[in-house]
Amino acid sequence: MFIKKRKGVILRMKELSSSQIRQMYLEFFKEKGHDIMPSASLIPHDDPTLLWINSGVATMKKFFDGSVVPKNPRITSSQKSIRTNDIENVGHTARHHTLFEMLGNFSVGDYFKKEAITWAWELLTSPKWFAMDKERLYVTVYPKDTEAKRIWHEVAGVSQDHIYEVEDNFWDIGQGPSGPDSEIFYDRGQDFNDLPEDDPENYPGGENERYLEIWNIVFSEFNHKPDGTYEPLPHKNIDTGMGLERVVSVFQNAPTNFETDLFLPLIKQTEKYSADKKYGQSKESDVSFKVIADHIRAVTFAIGDGAIPSNEGRGYVIRRLIRRAVMHGQKLGIEHAFLYELVPVVGKIMQSHYPEVLEQADYIAKVVRSEEDRFNETLKDGLELLNEMIVEAKKQSSKELSGKTAFKLYDTYGFPIELTKEYADDQGMSIDQAGFDQEMKQQKERARAARSNAKSMGVQKGLLTDIKTKSSYVGYDRLKVEGTLKDIIVEDKLVEKVENGSAQLIFDQTPFYAEMGGQVADTGSIKDTEGKTVAVVTDVQHAPNGQNMHTVKVLHPLTKEKVYVLQVDKALHDKTRKNHTATHLLDQALRDVLGSHTHQAGSLVEPNYLRFDFTNLGSVTREDLLKIERIVNEKIWANIPVRTIETDFDSAKKLGAIALFTEKYGDIVRVVKIDNYSIELCGGNHVDNTSELGLFKITSESGVGAGVRRIEAVTSKEAYEFLEKRNQLLESISEQMKIVQLKEIPHKLEQYQAQIKDLEQQKQALEDKFAQQQADSVFKQVEEIKGKTLIKAQVKVSGMAQLRQLADQWKTKKYSDVLVLATATKDGKVNLIAAASASAVKAGLKAGDLIKTIAPSVGGGGGGRPDLAQAGGKTPAGIADALKAASEWLEQKA
């Protein structure tokens, strides 16, 4: 325990580690009937509005807007989150982080203000739990929320002088659920007071260091409608958030979040890499230690969840964080790669709740090391550019570097603005901060524009949420059953009968699979008991309460509570289940060949093909694709039974079943087991034996995002047809090449390639001879202008390569001071080359300036060195004008 003194009384605070605090929070709410939800991946699933999961509530959207009804309306979690909107503040403030954990308890249409408030107070103050001093706790409420204020005082027992009304206490992110909130503050004492006693911000809720906000409880009770008005929610929700890093700093009596067990091991390890810098020696070095500790946490978790450094999206964020950390490492005197060695330190700190980090530590460290090495090369280029810009500015008698230059260093080379300022300051120069800020603003606007404009959370609709009809899926065994029509929905209204058009139907039982886990929905027909087709099923999705909801085209009237025959299209269903089983085999084969770090990032199982997305650093080689394909086919040819086991989640995990973070699993799960080779949790449809797949063929492999690759493949009939088309193509080629046997094609191609190479050499020799003949004539046509000599001409050569050869010959023989040659290519383009002798360059006649002057005449542009430059154009008719412009340029410059 650590001890605080207040008014002569010794107060004892529980001494808890971050893991104990996290676990205590979750256990408390578990005792209150909440299900503990595992932390979701940082990479959002089916949410185009988010780059990262940035809060606990981000994983609850589908529950709060009513699109899904949870098994238990009471949920608690410790959710890892990333926010990078104010990355520049990290290290400079006490509590800014890129990665943080948000402890939360949530009620979806269940308990509301009374329970949320009293439970929060119990957790914080009960001796059994956090045992905080009640006198140090303050709460704020929305002024119009008199009910919350009354509950805090009358039910929880908080004194009136510890309750503050704050106008900003209303949570609203636009369209969707919103409502008043109540924040809880911890008084850290006079030692942390950074304001005069009479300062208007010196109160719980104000901008100060003494009163630390540790918890926010949102009473989500209104729908913010698209027209800007508010209406009561059909189902009120509770959404809370307690920052783990903040509350740990309270228990561990830390001045900032960084002096806790979540960060200190990283800081201490970084000290070992620094020659002479220690944490606490100076404010400047402390910032660097904090930035490194913060950024490596975010990078480690992000890469562990499947993100890879790149130049866009999430990958750009990771690259930027790594580069900022490396730069701060250099400020501490660390010249070698070191970040990757911090990855296992992060894993050990977080092991109790996130064991997967240590399990993937080798892979994560490999990615980080690769990026560190890459940046060290980029860093040299950035420093060279910075030095060039400083020299150029000094030539122009400027003492300020442009904001555009500073931003280029920041955006392209990863230079933090403060680093550029330091370099400039060493040279007696400053930075155009306003210009830099403007460039940064434009970048953020571009990023916002590029992001999906999809709504962040839907307006809650009570209709589908309120449908509690019992409905079972029986399609694992039967594709044709009789079912009673229980609900008919037309244009968001429940009706008793539908005559025509489109409708959504729910039956008491159905053989139609609802789209899930990448497998597309079944299609088929609905008939009356006399055999007449009354509707065609075009899609099947899960309703909020889990029922299979059929979207149908109505052909004849359908009536509620009537019995109908539901029949799945068996041919399409069978093809789909073959491809689904193939994805399981492919998933494991990828891990066998590429490594255990590879994991699924998405899939689509259609009747005619399958698509499988997976994480991997680079493209998959042809050799590895062949190995993967071979493994899958060997499992098909081995005639392996495909078994499905229904068991509880924990037992499934003991079997070694792979679970995907994107899926939610109930108490009873289905395990699809293909021998001991592939064991996965899956609710989809599968074959009974791998031999039913017949054949597996990969049709393409490509990249679809930073660190995400995609394989498309076919099985059975489609695989045969794919190979047959390839065979027909080879047959056609053999006929054109007049080859009897297909096996002779490679040998014949080698012969053709040798002949082509020989012909190309002969052609090149003739072109060189022709160019030389032209050179003998061209180099004699010397024009003298103001004491300088110019050779200019249009020549007939194959392209830029031969123009450069002529320029080299000109340079060796020193035919003139300046040379300009042009040629029109066979594809209707123009190549220009300009050269200047050493004496001409010394006299200020630069080839680069010349080429920029004459290139517009041929509709092009270019550049180069002072002694040699080249350009391309698209207007051959302008060559004469370009050559004339060369004479005029020399007339002006000589």
Automatic annotation (TrEMBL):
Positions contributing to Zn(2+) binding: H580, H584, C682, H686
Its EC number(s): 6.1.1.7
Cofactor comment text: Binds 1 zinc ion per subunit.
InterPro entries hit by this protein: aa-tRNA-synth_II/BPL/LPL, Ala-tRNA-lgiase_IIc, Ala-tRNA-ligase_IIc_anticod-bd, Ala-tRNA-synth_IIc_core, Ala-tRNA-synth_IIc_N, Ala-tRNA_ligase, Ala_tRNA_ligase_euk/bac, DHHA1_dom
Chain's role: Catalyzes the attachment of alanine to tRNA(Ala) in a two-step reaction: alanine is first activated by ATP to form Ala-AMP and then transferred to the acceptor end of tRNA(Ala). Also edits incorrectly charged Ser-tRNA(Ala) and Gly-tRNA(Ala) via its editing domain.
Gene3D superfamilies in the record: 2.40.30.130, 3.10.310.40, 3.30.54.20, Bira Bifunctional Protein, Domain 2 (3.30.930.10), Threonyl-trna Synthetase, Chain A, domain 2 (3.30.980.10)
Key words of the record: Aminoacyl-tRNA synthetase, ATP-binding, Coiled coil, Cytoplasm, Ligase, Metal-binding, Nucleotide-binding, Protein biosynthesis, RNA-binding, tRNA-binding, Zinc
UniProt feature coiled coil, ranges: 742-776
Family: Belongs to the class-II aminoacyl-tRNA synthetase family.
GO terms, molecular function: alanine-tRNA ligase activity; aminoacyl-tRNA deacylase activity; ATP binding; catalytic activity, acting on a protein; transferase activity; tRNA binding; zinc ion binding
Residue stretches making up the Alanyl-transfer RNA synthetases family profile domain: 16-725
Cofactors required: Zn(2+)
SUPFAM superfamilies linked to this entry: Class II aaRS and biotin synthetases, Putative anticodon-binding domain of alanyl-tRNA synthetase (AlaRS), ThrRS/AlaRS common domain, Translation proteins
Name the record gives this protein: Alanine--tRNA ligase
GO cellular component terms given for this protein: cytosol
Domain notes: Consists of three domains; the N-terminal catalytic domain, the editing domain and the C-terminal C-Ala domain. The editing domain removes incorrectly charged amino acids, while the C-Ala domain, along with tRNA(Ala), serves as a bridge to cooperatively bring together the editing and aminoacylation centers thus stimulating deacylation of misacylated tRNAs.
Single GO BP term: alanyl-tRNA aminoacylation
Catalysed transformations (reactions): tRNA(Ala) + L-alanine + ATP = L-alanyl-tRNA(Ala) + AMP + diphosphate
Subcellular location(s) per record: Cytoplasm
Superkingdom, taxonomy of origin: Bacteria
Entry keyword annotation includes Cytoplasm: yes
